[in-house]
Model the fold of this input.
Amino acid sequence: MSGYEHYSEELASLDHEIMHYAAVCAVDLRNRGEIDACLRVHHDSDWIHDKARETLRGLLVLRIKVEEEMITAGHKPPPLLPPIVEAD
Done:
């Protein structure tokens, strides 16, 4: 990647695309099991029908790589989604 000054821009762009493809694929990003399944399971259906899910998978893997690079450089990556704040 290009360095610390660009991490926030890179993650913002990735997160925007991840949100889009998660919505298209009906993957709840707050559900760790759904994310794990998306990363782990490749579908054998024809490629055209699985293109959005494979794109989401690739974006999630890329985000993980950026996070790893940030951690290695001593930075703390922000979460993909903000934490849920429960009302009193």
Q: What stands out?
A: The chain has three helices and no strands. The CA atoms of residues 82 and 88 lie 18 Å apart. Helices lie at 4-25, 32-40, 47-72. The longest helix spans residues 47-72.
